[in-house]
# Entry
Amino acid sequence: MFKLLKSKKFVLVMVCLLALALIAGCGAQPKKEEAKKEETPKEEPKKEVRIIRAGIGLNDKHPQYKGLAKFKEIVEQKTDGAIKVELYHSGQLGDDRTMMEALQLGTQEMTCPSTAPIANFVKEFNVFDFPFLFPNEEVADKVLDGPVGQELLDKLPEQGLIGLAYWENGFRNLTNSKRAVATVEDFKGLKIRTMENQVHLEAFRALGANPTPMPFPELFTAMQQGTVDGQENPYATIYLQKFYEVQSHVSDTNHVYSPFVLMMSKKFWDESTPEQQKIFLEAAKTARDYERKLNREANAKYLAELEKEGMTYTHISDEVRAEMQEIVKPIIEKFKDKVGAETVDKVYKAIEEAQK
Ligand code: TK8
# Structure
């Protein structure tokens, strides 16, 4: 009896020691998530869920929103519930510029502005808004996703922003409520809303229009009330934001290719683990490819839809486009030095390379 008790005690002590060893072993390997889950399900402290509030100016019909939804899906799945992504569209959190400022302050975590307003934070970004810079989307992809594109993204952290990837807004086309625009003459005196960007502003001024910079969320009402006669954006935006309700003419000016940059607050980035940062970057790229594909499909099909909605389409001939190009040349020359001639030359070179 005594012997048995003694051996029972011994077994008990052994079991306790084993359990202790197990727990200690677990503690020493906090990275083995799975082992941890199986062996100490109850002791694990409640995981803190960190929230990413991602805001955009466009509505939830736009490929940009769908790309963001893809980003959310990937990030939430790969971070295993540690990060939740909330999506806000239609300028619910403000316009591009306001949201970037919120990212700087750390009161918002993500946004996806056009490069035009980014240029107010990092001047080199102006280069991507030079009129007639990119000849087509394929070249834009190569340059933006290549070393020069990255070099510009690398200037964002100084401003408290992290550029994850270039997405696509696309080639911009002019709409207005006054007249069909077929020639440079036709631009004369048109009150055109531009993005908040000096290059855009001066290019439209040179073309003879009367441009006013304005944040995107104010645009529809401004057109409705006649504060401006027109605006320029890719077909996807013109159609999906229902601009055809307040605009009667559209011309295929294709005057500039507009990139987006998916960005994160540096504060949130720095508070994330290296594994999470890697997930953000990968998700941004997967979602980018998806967004670009949807966006190209959208831009290809929505001009016809705009006509169906009653807009008059006017084609810009190659001669007129060449004339436009000639008129904006001095603006580009002027901004080259302002932006940084070295950056501009690198971009031109990369475009040349991409066309080979
Ligand atoms: C949306 C903007 C928009 C842009 C503009 O926030 O402002 O016209 O084309 O897409 O980024």
Summary: The first strand starts at residue 50 and ends at 55. The radius of gyration is 27 Å. The pocket of D-xylonic acid is lined by residues 56-58, 96, 113-114, 169, 195, 216, 233, 237, 258 (CB under 6 Å). Confidence is low (pLDDT under 50) at residues 1-6, 13-37.
